[in-house]
From TrEMBL:
A molecular-function term among this protein's GO annotations: heme binding
PROSITE patterns according to UniProt: CYTOCHROME_P450
Signal peptide boundaries: none
Key word Oxidoreductase present: yes
Entry protein name: Cytochrome P450
InterPro entries, sorted: Cyt_P450, Cyt_P450_B, Cyt_P450_CS, Cyt_P450_sf
Protein function: Cytochromes P450 are a group of heme-thiolate monooxygenases. They oxidize a variety of structurally unrelated compounds, including steroids, fatty acids, and xenobiotics.
CDD domains: CYP142-like (cd11033)
Lineage, broadest ranks: Bacteria, Pseudomonadati, Pseudomonadota, Alphaproteobacteria, Sphingomonadales
Keywords: Heme, Iron, Metal-binding, Monooxygenase, Oxidoreductase
Similarity comment text for this entry: Belongs to the cytochrome P450 family.
Superkingdom, natural source: Bacteria
Amino acid sequence: MATQLAPEAPFTYRSSPTAIEAYEEWLAANPQAAPVHTQPWDVSASAIYVEDRWGPIFAEMRAKAPINKVTGTPYGNYWNVTTHKAIQHVESLPELFSSSWQHGGITIGDPPEGTDPAKLAERQMPMFIAMDRPDHTGQRRTVAPAFTPAEIARMEAEIRHRTGEVLDSLPWGEKFDWVDKVSIELTTGMLAILFGFPWADRRLLTFWSDWAGDVELTLASDLADQRFEILSEMARYFQGLWMQRMGAAPTPDLISMMIHSPAMSKMSPLEFMGNLVLLIVGGNDTTRNTMSGIVHALDQFPDQRALLEGNPSLIPNAVQECLRFVTPLAHMRRTATADNELFGQQIRAGDKVIMWYLSANRDETVFENPNKLIVDRPNARRHLAFGHGIHRCVGARLAELQLRVLLEEMHERKMRVRVAGDVQRVRANFVHGFRKLEVVLEKR
Ligand code: HEM
């Protein structure tokens, strides 16, 4: 990432193309570069998520070979880890299974082949999600105070107010896109509140986050410069906010909190920027896709919707069950730092190990009838949608709050959301969710 930050550089706000549009345009212009996935257990193929046919593939792996190696894919060779127990095991050994970007980071995508290592290091955003101990520990501490139960409780009134406003602006009885009008709107609004980000610019957060987070872009080497340019612009924007708040009295937003944190003195400006980006990306499409996924899942299971409508005290549990059912991040990656045996499989140092949360959350040895949404499921909380261990999602409480408030405010308004049109899923193997979800609102 930009080691030379230029605070005075003018912003040229980018509103188009979005990351997915750029990637699709690039694929159309370079059809020969389209990734070819030939193996049945190569679950890096984004088509299986777009077409929503991943379920039986993972079920077969869990039954026949829960830890298996796939070779020669567009993402190289990798291990699939598909069960709840094995993923918890891998996450519990962070020294043996590294998250560090120097080893390859946390997604299945590697930098385009032949990338100059110096250029790669220069462009690397240092984020604590892609660090091992001890660096990870210190940097996580700088943001953790923003997510304590007391801080989350402090944010509840504002999030509730904002959620109500968005729901009250929706048309009843007329088709609209829930992703655009609700999921994106609420997620960017929450992040703007969290960061004290200028309200009018909040959709930039989605635009940047999509460019920063899309793993499939790593296959399109031609887009690397464009991506870098957009992310540099984002870094300049945040640097502007940072400079504004540097000399000012502390405010309750996350940027000010980080600036005034004692650990800040140990963080370079670049690390500060990297961690801000991590929070934007981490909190963005995950929450957005859960908000869409909840509506879709309740529509698919009308008996469960009726149960919830009749008993709103089930909402907190339903939030956990929806997180399990939706699993908005399909995977996280680790890289083995030494040869080891993983439940009978020989893993070699340097091997890429992919933990498929999507599969763990359908593990039939943990979740009875896993393909059904069951809002009063007794062990819904055991889901791994937030990961496990030292990297478990730092924003989990905030995400849970937003989802709970959304369901409560929908209940308050007797709002039933019926899927009634185009449903498009995200073309990705990392972010798992909806690009478009046309719905109609009905009074229950
Ligand atoms: C880490 C999921 C919302 C910030 C993670 C991880 C997952 C995850 C799977 C990695 C865990 C691991 O490697 O074990 C989710 C889901 C969310 C969500 C499903 C919403 C439904 C948020 C929000 C924020 C956030 C709202 C902040 C605004 C982060 C950060 C990390 C992280 C900073 C890195 C933690 C670390 O490395 O120590 N999240 N997340 N996430 N998430 Fe979230």
